[in-house]
Amino acid sequence: MRFIKNIKTLHYKELFLYGIYGSYIFITSFATIIDFFIQNYIDAFVDFISVVLVVFVFKNYLKHKNQELASIYIFWISSSIVFIFIIKNEFNIGVIFTLLIPLVAFILLSTKKIIQHVSLYFVILTLIFVFGYLKYDTHPLLYDPKPMSAYIIATMFVLAFGFFYHTVIEHYYQELEEANRQKTFLLKEIHHRVKNNLNIIASLLGLQKFETNSQEVHKLIDQNRLRLQSIAMAHEILYKQDNLEHIAFDNYVSKLSTYILEIDSHSNTISLKIDIMKINLSIESVIQFGIIINELMTNSIKYAFEDRDGEIIITLIKTKNGYQFKYYDNGKGFDIEKCEHGFGHNIIEMSIEQLGGILSVKNENGLSYIIDFKELV
């Protein structure tokens, strides 16, 4: 699954290059084995040497990521092998492979490199055909005008398709790629500005604390600032990563829970354990989880431990029926009936409803909030 995700992130040229190298190594290795078993040792040796060269070049490409150089190498290694087999096997059906190799250049190389390398390729191929014409005076391909004209027409068709692809399709693809880059930039900028605006609102709320000495008002302001920060943090993570659709949930929970502990003056007596499975969630789901975690943690820090050491555990696991999120603290617990109509509890229930979860609360040996989900997106 991770391999498939990595493949999806590749640029199409890089993906094509991977395919060319992989196909060449697999097919030529198979040809080497076949040639060896039919005792065609010279062809087997040539195939084996080419596979070794291609593997070496591919490993070098993976290390240095020089796509143009890797494209040129595979172009000329495959060309050289085809040229060798054309001459050795006296212009048999393998000649047809000469039509395919230029397509590699048209897809992978720049216009300047295409002109240089494809021109040199056809100069060498022409010299090989002249050599065959002089050596094999009765060869059906070289002397019969019908197969030779068909070969020339097919070559012209391949060249025409190659130039059409490179000049037209490639041009439109580059336009789409540029539009996608602009879209990505704008989305990042939106998330960045949303994060900044939320932080500004949080700062304004902080300034309002100076207008009153009421500790109750201070508490309400701090709670709302934390709620804004939990939302802003999700936008900040999206802004800093390439994937603008999903957020690594374990990373978000770790950052948010650590932040909540750090801003509380008594949090140094509380240990935090997080065991979140590897899963990527949409920003909508992450924000709802952030609201839930923020409400539960602030309540635990302020009311659960009464200035004694405490422990908070946050987990998300895969179950037979879906997923289970669990929040636990080993504090004194609370009277559920008194709190179920409170503002914080209502926020938690609203967020759980948005996520499509089912809540169960256990108030034994501490407090446990257990939320079961059929699916998470």
Provide an overview of this structure.
The structure is a single chain. By secondary structure, the protein is of the alpha+beta class. It folds into 2 domains: 133 residues, no CATH class; 132 residues, Heat Shock Protein 90 (2-Layer Sandwich). It contains 13 helices and 7 strands. The protein has a 5-stranded mixed beta sheet with strand order 2-4-5-7-6, with helices on one face. It is elongated and about 105 Å long.
Write the layout of secondary structure elements.
Elements: H1 2-8, H2 12-37, H3 41-64, H4 67-88, H5 101-108, H6 111-135, H7 140-143, H8 145-208, H9 215-240, E1 246-248, H10 249-263, E2 270-276, E3 280-282, H11 283-304, E4 310-319, E5 322-329, H12 336-339, H13 343-355, E6 357-362, E7 367-373
Parallel strand pairs: 2-4
Antiparallel strand pairs: 1-3, 4-5, 5-7, 6-7
Helix pairs in contact: 2-3, 2-4, 3-4, 4-5, 4-6, 5-8, 8-9, 9-10, 9-11, 10-11, 11-13
